[in-house]
Design goal:
219 residues, Ferritin, 58% helix
Amino acid sequence: MERRLTFPQKPHGLSVSRRRMVIGGLFAGATSAVGLSALAARPAKADDEAAANDAAILNGALYYEHQAIWAYSTAAGFLSNTDVGKAVLKLALANQADHKVHRDTLAEVITSLGGTPVDAESEYDLSAYLERGDGGLDSDANIAKLALALETDAAIAYATEVSMLKTPALITAGASIAATEASHATAIRAAFISLGMDIAFVPAPFFNGDNRDEWVIKV
């Protein structure tokens, strides 16, 4: 059966734009270590304006968490049964497991802040990545490149978005997640190095939109 990628629009009402929150949602790292889990039990009545602000930003992130989980599942169906394909699948499943934990935790935090967690869509838009050559679904290597691009954008987005949060513990959590996203990107680059590609583990001294192209590996 032909695999189909359809591309719905971002849900109405989210305050974080697709351009700025381009992450494919890919959270990584242990949220319990950086404060999100503890915040889930905290009533958000002291500052309704701050709570609404943070819930909106986190709901934007949750949308892309859903997208990330879908993207890994979809890409897995295109992987070969070779040793390389199995290695990429193992890495993808490990990353996806993190995303599922973060999806659940974010939903709980958003609820505690008085918001309504956004639901998952059945399919998501990867066309911009495919059209730019930031990976593809036609080979194991290109699927890994697509994951690298998504992880790179996740790190960049978090570094940008955390400053908009009003709750100090959430800012700390977001900064930690951004650092872990960068680690995920580095791990994918390390996988390419193990396969003989002559690239640096860490290709630039900074991780931001200005040097994004130094981190991703084009098709």
